[in-house]
Write a structure and sequence with these properties.
alpha+beta, Gyrase A, domain 2, four-stranded antiparallel sheet, 3 helices, 4 strands, globular, Pterin_deHydtase, PCD_sf, 4-alpha-hydroxytetrahydrobiopterin dehydratase activity, lyase, Putative pterin-4-alpha-carbinolamine dehydratase
């Protein structure tokens, strides 16, 4: 069973917990710039472990030292607690 979608009010409340993320349509997104390409790749590898543990995988786009992330719960059709929980774990790795 897919997780329940969050209401707009719940999304706004959860966004306060992850201040560097932006609500865009049915997802939350963040862009992070690192010192080097290898720092960006190391970060991607660290967050991969969190994604696997949560069985919830972000869309990841990497160009040189910049990593762009997007989270949404596809099987629910929008934002759920899974997106915000994973975003908070990702933030700990920055």
């Amino acid at each position: 069973m897919a997780p329940e979608l969050l209401s707009e009010e719940e999304i706004e409340e959860r966004l306060e917990e992850i201040e560097d993320w932006e609500w865009v349509d049915d997802s939350i997104e963040r862009s992070i710039e690192f010192e080097s390409f290898m720092d960006a790749i190391d970060f991607i590898n660290r967050i991969a472990n969190h994604a696997e543990e949560a069985d919830h995988h972000p869309e990841i786009f990497n160009v040189y030292n910049t990593v762009e992330l997007s989270l949404t719960t596809h099987d629910s059709g929008g934002l759920t607690h899974k997106d915000f929980d994973l975003a908070a774990k990702i933030d700990l790795e920055v």
